[in-house]
Specification:
Blueprint lengths: L1 E2 L6 E5 L4 H13 L1 E7 L5 H12 L3 E4 L3 E7 L11 E2 L4 H11 L5 E5 L10 H9 L3 E4 L8 E4 L7 E3 L5 H11 L6 E4 L7 H8 L4 E4 L2 E4 L9 E3 L4 H13 L4 E8 L6 H8 L3 E10 L2 E9 L7 E2 L11 H10 L2 E5 L12 H11 L3 E5 L2 E6 L6 E4 L4 H10 L7 E4 L11 H8 L2
Parallel strand pairs: 2-15, 3-14, 6-7, 10-11, 18-19, 22-23
Antiparallel strand pairs: 1-23, 3-5, 4-5, 7-9, 8-9, 11-13, 12-13, 15-17, 16-17, 19-21, 20-21
The structure holds shikimate-3-phosphate and phosphoenolpyruvate.
GO molecular function, one term: 3-phosphoshikimate 1-carboxyvinyltransferase activity
Protein name: 3-phosphoshikimate 1-carboxyvinyltransferase
InterPro entries: Enolpyruvate_Tfrase_dom, Enolpyruvate_Tfrase_sf, EPSP_synthase, EPSP_synthase_CS, RNA3'P_cycl/enolpyr_Trfase_a/b
């Protein structure tokens, strides 16, 4: 696909439902007793993979697009799938479902696409094994395919080396089945959607700073979940509205949970004109309309505890930094290397092709911004966040940007190009 410079961005956009919350709604709906109704569910390939996996384990899930009905069978209602469970491209599905599969009374093989088969699963195998789970990396390389034998689990207190909501959530889901309390401490607070949704479904869970503790669950009833818009999808339009001259856009109904809103803080730190309106609460998750206007931006330092709150936004933040005047330093973000692609290497390589002064480091990037962006051919490596980031960079480039593998946006935002086109003037 080829993208060109535009004059401005104007109008309103409603981004799709939050990916993290959509996954969790299917999982908890499947484990609840009765029918959970989910609205504004993300119809992206990753969340459809979660639906497919629970369907294979006997959960009847009606996908009527506007509403999803999950006919939950309670905590012990899953049945052994006839075939391998395929998570597609979704790390979230893999790590969260592993926590549940650890506690069943059957064996299962879990795998995914070539990207998933390179992503580290030791971080979930280690704590789940401490709980009594039996998980084997079939190729012995700490990655999927995984062979999981459901077992009796015990509660542990786990200190995680990474601030990862996927690790935390896998452990908390296993903790529902443990014989005692389970807790996890992480170096920084990662997104807390699992905690909020456990609470919403009536599960006993407590958070104390960086430690989360869950009690063994009793059966809990189905509920209704309204999924807020995904701030990680809104991020592309936040940045586009800031960097393209004469722009003003409203992004409606976006989740602004403080464990996810690092992008707003960083933009403000860089001088962005951003306002939040219609702030409200959607089943425990704060949401708002985000209004962005073109702004003069300056570089900044992004490091430490803010990193987990904007981890998926770092590729588009790198584009913002390439346009801002002065230097932006991104540190403490080595997790970027183990996402759908090595997002440090892929961003640095492609930004260089556009003429950006950028250097990759062990745990981030140093970007000297403010120079003209040039046309180039960008290989997305089939990473949705990379494809969307460069589609936004193209809006300012002095020549066409060709994106290879552009269709990978279907993972998290199938209507992305249509929405971008609708806002473009
Ligand atoms: O829990 C989640 O829903 C997610 C957690 C993050 O991963 P890590 O927990 O591995 O950092 C994020 O990158 C991913 O897109 C979604
Ligand atoms: C890292 C991501 O997702 P996952 O880990 O679920 O594949 C992402 O969406 O950027």
């Amino acid at each position: 696909m080829i993208f060109h410079k535009i004059h401005s961005l104007k109008g309103e956009v409603t981004v799709p439902g939050d990916k993290s919350i959509s996954h969790r709604a299917i999982m908890l709906g499947s484990l609840a007793q009765g029918t959970t109704e989910i609205t504004n569910f993300l119809q992206g390939e990753d969340c459809l993979s979660t639906i497919r996996c629970f369907g294979q384990m006997g959960i009847h899930i009606e996908n009527n697009k506007d509403t999803i009905l999950v006919h939950g069978k309670g905590l012990h209602g899953l049945r052994k799938p006839d075939e391998i469970l395929d998570v597609g491209n979704s790390g979230t599905t893999t790590r969260l479902i592993s926590g549940i599969l650890s506690a069943t009374d059957f064996e299962v093989t879990l795998t995914g696409d070539s990207s998933i088969q390179k992503r580290p699963m030791g971080r979930i195998i280690t704590p789940l094994t401490m709980m009594g789970a039996k998980i084997e990396s079939i190729k012995g390389n700490g990655c999927a395919p995984l062979f999981i034998t459901g077992s009796k689990l015990k509660g542990i207190h786990y200190i995680s080396e990474v601030a990862s909501a996927q690790v935390k959530s896998g452990i908390l889901l296993a903790g529902l089945y443990a014989d005692g309390e389970t807790s996890i401490t992480e170096p920084y607070v990662s997104r807390n959607h699992t905690e909020l949704m456990f609470q919403y479904f009536g599960i006993d869970i407590q958070t104390d700073n960086t430690t989360v503790t869950v009690q063994p669950a009793k059966e809990f009833p189905a509920s209704q979940v309204v999924v807020p818009g995904d701030i990680s999808s809104a991020a592309y339009f936040i940045v586009a509205g800031l960097i393209v001259p004469n722009s003003e856009i409203r992004i409606k109904n976006v989740g602004i949970n403080p464990t996810r809103d690092g992008i707003i803080k960083v933009c403000e730190q860089m001088g962005a004109n951003i306002t939040l309106e219609n702030i409200t609460d959607t089943n425990g998750e704060p949401t708002a309309d985000i209004i962005v206007r073109s702004s003069e931006l300056t570089g900044t330092i992004i490091e430490g505890g803010i990193i987990p709150t904007l981890i998926d936004e770092l590729p588009i933040i790198a584009i913002l930094a390439a346009v801002a005047k002065g230097q932006t330093v991104i540190k403490d973000a080595s997790e970027l290397k183990v996402k759908e692609s090595n997002r440090i290497d892929v961003m640095v390589k492609n930004l260089k092709l556009m003429g950006v002064d950028v250097e990759g480091t062990e745990d981030g990037m140093i970007i000297n911004g403010g120079n003209t962006l040039h046309g180039a051919t960008i290989d997305s490596k089939l990473d949705h966040r990379i494809a969307m980031s460069f589609a936004i960079a193209a809006l300012l480039a002095d020549g066409p940007i060709e994106i290879l593998g552009a269709e990978c946006v279907n993972i998290s935002y199938p209507d992305f190009y249509t929405h971008l086109n609708d806002l473009s003037q």
